[in-house]
Design brief:
5 helices, 196 residues, globular
C-alpha cells in the first residue's frame, strides 16, 4: 500500500466495520511474515521520528485469517504507537508475536505518552477522544475501534494496558489459534528444490 491507497482502504474498511457489513476472506496466513512486513513498512516513519522500531518474532506462526484486514489492523496499531511516542526521549516500539496453547498474541509496546488508567476502558469505543487527544477513531485511520472490530470478526480481542501517563502503552491483538498444519504450510516459504 502507498500512503494514499492505505488511507482509501481504511476509509472503505472503516465504513463497512461501522455498518456491520464487513466480511472475512480467510486464508492460511504466515503471521510472522505479516508482522515483519508491517514493521518494515513503518521503519522510515519511525526513523524520522527518532524512534527505534523492531519486530520480535521467535517462531514461524501461521493462522487462518483475512490477511488484508489483519494488515490494516496491525498497521494502525503501529502508526498509533509512532504518533504517541513521537517526541518522547529514547522512543522505542517493539512488535512481539507470541503464542500460547490456544491463542496467538501480537503485542505493540511503546515508550510513549501512556494512557490514564481510568481512560483505558473508554479507548475502544467509537469516536472516544481522551484528554491527551488520543481517540478510538480519528482522521481517516481505523482507530482502536476498527482494530477491535477486525479482531472480533476473527474471534479475537484487543487489550490496552498502560501504567499511566508517561509510562508507555501495550496494545495486544489476540487471535484464536486455528487448526493449521504449520509444518506443511512452512514449506510454502521455502524455495523449491532443484530437480536433477
Amino acid at each position: 500500500f502507498g500512503r494514499g491507497q492505505a488511507m482509501s482502504a481504511d476509509i472503505l474498511l472503516g465504513s463497512t466495520l461501522r455498518a456491520g457489513t464487513a466480511q472475512l476472506h480467510p486464508q492460511p496466513l504466515n503471521l510472522t511474515a505479516l508482522v515483519a512486513a508491517v514493521v518494515s513498512r513503518f521503519q522510515p516513519d519511525a526513523a524520522l521520528a527518532g524512534i527505534q522500531l523492531t519486530a520480535d518474532c521467535d517462531a514461524l506462526l501461521w493462522v487462518v485469517a483475512d490477511g488484508p484486514k489483519l494488515d490494516r489492523a496491525l498497521a494502525n496499531l503501529v502508526a498509533n504507537a509512532i504518533a504517541y511516542t513521537r517526541g518522547c526521549p529514547q522512543g522505542v516500539i517493539t512488535v512481539c508475536l507470541e503464542q500460547s496453547e490456544r491463542q496467538l498474541h501480537v503485542r505493540v509496546r511503546d515508550t510513549g505518552i501512556g494512557i490514564e488508567t481510568d481512560a483505558i476502558e473508554r479507548i475502544g469505543q467509537r469516536f472516544t477522544r481522551l484528554a491527551d487527544g488520543r481517540e478510538a477513531h480519528h482522521g481517516h485511520g481505523l482507530g482502536l475501534f476498527g482494530v477491535a472490530a477486525i479482531a472480533a470478526l476473527h474471534g479475537g480481542t484487543i487489550a490496552v494496558v498502560s501504567p499511566g501517563r508517561g509510562c508507555g502503552t501495550t496494545v495486544t491483538l489476540t487471535l484464536p489459534r486455528n487448526t493449521v498444519d504449520e509444518t506443511a504450510l512452512a514449506t510454502l516459504d521455502r524455495p523449491a528444490e532443484a530437480h536433477t
